[in-house]
Amino acid sequence: MNKGMHPLVMIGLVGAVTLFGRLLPTWTLSLATIAAANALISLGIVVLARTGNISFGQGLFYAAGGYGVALIANGWGLTDAVAQVIIGAVCGGVLGLVIGPLIARYSGIFFGMLTLALSMVFYGALVKSTALGGSDGFNVGRPTLFGIGFSDPREADFMLYAVSVITTGLAGIAATILFRSEFGLASLAVRENNLRVEYLGLSANRIISLNFVIAAIFAGASGAFALMAQRHIDPQFAYWTTSGEFVFVAVLAGNQSVAAVFVASMALELVRSFSNLYLPNTWQLVLGVFLLGVILFLPRGIGSLWVRDRRRKSTPATASEGTTKKEVVL
Amino acid sequence: MKPVLSVRGLDKRFGAVVAADALTLDIPVGQKVSLIGANGAGKTTFVNMVTGYLAPDKGSIALDGLDIGGRSPRNVAKLGISRSFQIPQLFIELTAAENLTVAISGAGTRALSFQSPAGAQERHDKAVELLRRFGLADLADRPISELAGGVRKLIDISMALVRRPKLLLLDEPTSGVSAEEKFATMDRVIHAVAPDASTVVFVEHDMEIVNRYADRVVAFYQGRILADGEPAHVLKDKEVRRYVTGGTQ
Fold first, then answer.
1. How far apart, in Å, are the Cα atoms of B106 and each of B109, B163, B212?
2. Chain B residue with minimal CA distance to A187?
3. A107: buried, middle or exposed (CB in 10 Å: 19+, 13-18, 0-12)?
């Protein structure tokens, strides 16, 4: 079994990437912040995809996290960035706990469509809710960190970059440990054959539900980051195109590597920014071609560039490897 | 002898098709029972009802005196009935050892760990030990997708053994195995399951296998039990020869 990178090395890498932000130009900082926030929610989709289910409605939890944080920030004046991320994660997680067990009994396209439908119901409710600003949404103040306010835009951007990179990095480390764990292997087993999982005494529904809650927690925290970066929230957070974008990143990344999610998210933001700059009227076309290219040449996602396919790593079973021919060809 | 499995008046219909018609059967501890019958006779339906995959329309199923009728496959597995499948039900993208590891995790008494590595030494060693019993230890790190059908069948059986079941149900353990290798395969299965499962029920179409390995034979026909007894008697039964074996014995 692949042991992979040690968590302490990963923590060191997260620290290095955070400090690297000091060298980046301001426009790159905000781009990286958005990429990290998007990577966090897409990582949740990858976590869930390991059970064989794709959520097309993660915007629901993204919006729940964002609106929850925005309401608490405006109502109680809580502006601390770390507290806001935690609140966003809790909002997403609680909603995931309610929805997850109900939706876990469905699979495939039904699962995907139900998540999409729920997010659109939430979107509709937000648009109609005048108390939450309707379709215009509402604004929130600039976030602080441990009581420190940041009036310099460059410092404020770096603070947000650092918090988002550290949070997403820690989530990535947690996901890596999860993927290698007993629970992670059982999640893959659910994807492969959920009936056999049940016959082995495990609950496939419970495994899917727990992965769903993890994905919802990541989505809620991501919503908090999006809110802090924009200082504005509106129902667009829950709209299906927003959810689709996160699925886009997850498809680009594949499910073989946590790092691939971050690379895919950054690649998407870069492609979007530059195509928007140089081809303002056709940037969606460029994005589409980019996705097609990845699907055609890297069908298992960007992660397959550095994670070798196990099926190709080993040669077919032969009689000369300590077992008789009879045993292999039975 | 005390029955480990006791079935009374089991009925199951699929529309007009009668898959089980008032089935009544006791299986004592330590017996090796073979279920025979033509396709559609109700053998697999019986296995599916006993393991909780299908709910009977009527009747009761008891394991060690405990009513298990209507319970889910997961609960039935936890109570001590394991099964293998006619078409092996494995996790194709995972390795043989990982398949066993999932089974070992499922048999554990505590919840699945979020941090303990799946391939922890203790679990891996246990997985390899089980594979070794079937002569497959060298294939532990091979993905199932690379392995031949017969090997998959043995891995499927080995996964069912992990819980050390009170009752092991094997659905056609030698199907897909060539005529020259069927006895070797069945020898290996019987030898490998012996330490963990003393009571074995196997569905089989090959009467030579039935004759050699079963202590008792139950012949099914149109959802009913046509004959039940020692292989020598059942396989010579006139009705069994007419409706089940086609005069092969």
1. 8, 8, 33
2. B102
3. middle
Number of structural domains (chain A) is 1
Predicted confidence (pLDDT) per residue in A174-226, tens digit: 998 999 999 999 999 999 999 999 999 999 999 999 999 999 999 999 999 99
Contact B135 A207 (CB under 8 A): no
Contact (CB, 8 A) for B235 and B229: no
Q: Give CA–CA dist A123/B186, Å, rounded.
A: 60
CA distances from A252 to A4, A14, A257, A292, B215 (A): 21, 22, 11, 10, 57
Among the partner residues B95, B105, B135, nearest to A323 by beta-carbon distance? B135
- DSSP SS3 for B81: strand
More confident residue, A267 or A5: A267
Q: Could you give the number of structural domains in chain B?
A: 1
Q: Comparing C-alpha atoms, which of A240, A258, A261, A237 is closest to residue A249?
A: A261
User: Measured between beta carbons, which residues in chain B are less than 8 angstroms from residue A317?
Assistant: 139, 142, 146-148, 151
The answer to whether the Cβ–Cβ distance between A324 and B105 falls below 8 Å is: no
Express each pLDDT in A51-88 by its tens digit: 999 999 999 999 999 999 999 998 898 889 999 999 99
**CB contacts, 8 Å: A202 with chain B:** 74, 102, 105-106, 112
Q: Domain range spanning residue B140?
A: 89-111+118-163
